[in-house]
Amino acid sequence: MNAPKFNLSMLKNIDFTQLTAIAKQRGVLIGSVLVIVIAPLAAWWFRSGLTDKIEETMSQRVKDFTKMSELSQTEVTVRGATAGQDPKSKVSLNGILIQALQERNHALENELKDVYQAAIEYNQKHHSFIPLKDNQGKDKIIFPKPDQNDVIEEIYFPAIIPAYQALLVDNRTGQAPDSAAVLEAVQRRSSDFILSDLKKKSITEVTDPKELSDLTAALRGARLASLDAKAREISVYLDSSAIAMPQIKKQITPADCFILQWDLWVLQDIFSAIAAGNAGVTDGVISAPVKRIITIAIDPLVLKASATDASAEKPAADPAQSAAEPAKEEEATGEAIMPGSEIAPDYATSMTGLKSCQLYDVRNVKLKLIVATEDMPKVFNAFAQENFMTITQVKMSPVDVFAAARQGYIYGKEPCSEVDMTLETIWFRAWTTLQMPIELKNKLGTRGVDMPVKNNSEQPADQPKDQPKDAASEDSKS
Fold this sequence. Notes:
CATH topology of the largest domain: Alpha-Beta Plaits
Oligomer: single chain
Structural class: alpha+beta
CATH superfamily of the largest domain: Ribosomal protein S6/Translation elongation factor EF1B
Number of helices: 13
Largest sheet: 6 strands, mixed
Number of domains: 3
Number of strands: 10
Helix content: 40-55%
Radius of gyration: 44 Å
CATH class of the largest domain: Alpha Beta
Strand order of the largest sheet: 5-6-7-8-10-9
């Protein structure tokens, strides 16, 4: 509300001498009129101006108090709240509280980095590259890039094939005795029994039904003894075609060699889990929970479609290119490793929601095993505790142990089952890509972690000097 305004310039036209005369004659009357009329008007004018000022002041104060009230009831989300504790709280922010929250967030970030680093170290475990030597016994390195004069197949196959074979020997795997070996043992027992027990010179002299029955029992026992001896000297049966062993071929690439090495790491983890399931067994396959490995099939790596398409469309190198103008070194074009980024689960790909991403690769393995039925929980638990393995599919069927014995496999007295399972294994790129060839990095769609520089003045062979540093490397240094 606004006070009325008056034009005081009209006062110049008034004859004050006449007003004075009138005031003397009718002063009392005029005074009374002024009191009755002017006083309320003046009071209304002053009141209206004061009211506007008070309303404006009070409105500002209401805003200030509302802001103070909101600050006193600020909602803060506390990271790392314990179970059953509401992470959101209404508090009054101040300098001390803000500093405490900053310290808490910093501590949690460091804790997450420590957990991530521990996961990488656990994932890598004892996995290492097999040592390589040339024909003269000199140490050689082909990852991430071999020397130009090296013939890769002459360096790699003499090392990788024995490494696969050593894995089988170290885990005491073996095959059922072949029929020729069993027949030889049975024939030896037949000759001994005829000469020593029946006191005959040859089997043609054995005509008595009881003697024939005794001979048959002796031969059956000899066969079972031969099979039993083999079963006790090994930890698990391994079929001859169970594992795809490296095959020698010409013009193998460093990427192919790296995959063979990676497959060896996968096999090492699988045999480690089987050994854990069979721990404490002293009589070999006879009482082992895992009795036979029929197949171990490692699925191929999941490659980026863009990477495979690009390789298909890539033009062939010009054979006329001058040696003085070497081809430009291939550069990594994939995603950088970002440990702090969120990985969205994909349950259409796997029941765990995991699939290969910029942080890790998923390698699935299909196994077919013969397992003692009552020991299945122990075996499944052994796989679950091995290096981020998860059993995603299981199919079981009963096994006829007598039919297996006729084929040379002795499983013992307990019931057994044939188990088909799919394993999901996780491999963190923070360590697998350290020496990974750039060709394979691009096929996987990752920049990975480049080879560390040996010293301040030396640049690794696979990293151009003008190549930007990997984001994960920067993060680990910080």
